[in-house]
Design brief:
alpha/beta, five-stranded mixed beta sheet, two-stranded antiparallel sheet
Length: 251
Amino acid sequence: MVDNPKQSDCSTFCPLPWNSINIRNNGDIRICCNANSYTANRGIVRHDDGTPYNASRDNLQDSRNSELSRDVRATMLRGEWHPECERCRQEEKTGVLSRRQMEYNDWDLTPETAEELTQEDGTINTEDFNLEFFDIRYGNFCNLKCRMCGPTDSHTWFDDFVKLNGQTHYKDTHERIQLTKNAKGRWETDQYDCLKAVTCTGPILRNTQRMLKNFILWVANHLLLKNMLTVWKDLYIMAVQLICRLSTTQT
């Protein structure tokens, strides 16, 4: 239990480090999609050797007690802002409704309950906290190239990236990305395909089955209808309560 004199202070508390799994489009697991903005780490949860937890090879339960996950939870329960949460801090500082505030209102988890069931270093027993929010991104296959985006989230950015930077490679959180030209003369890579295969989805969901209670699925930049229907079928079978939200580019 955290020795925290501000146990009723919710000014920095967010339920996501306790009740969610967030998967980037390369399979890397992160603390929150908003943590993509301000730090060099971009919210990625890592093993002790520094390699990212990745949904295509790692146990999702283990990732919930990564060093970063523990540190974020302990920091929140002290009533402090963690560096990975800087975007929400900046938004609230300027009077904008932040993701943290929205999530705090959406879920039943309170700072008092989280504190009671969280160890001083931020470690949790994952059986005490149901996985309620699942944000999964299926690769970077997208037929739009928005100005605020880039090659990590949209494959249609590849051509412009090469023209603007004069190079055919860049570093993402999981590895160095190398672009090559296909038979049609377009730049491409298969280094974002780990979650496109339906065979990869089953193990991911089976890893969450025992802790699954209320499940929300976000699928961004996702034009692979076959995969989406397979995921929803698996969730329908496993979930006690199921709310599915689909986030797409609507194109």
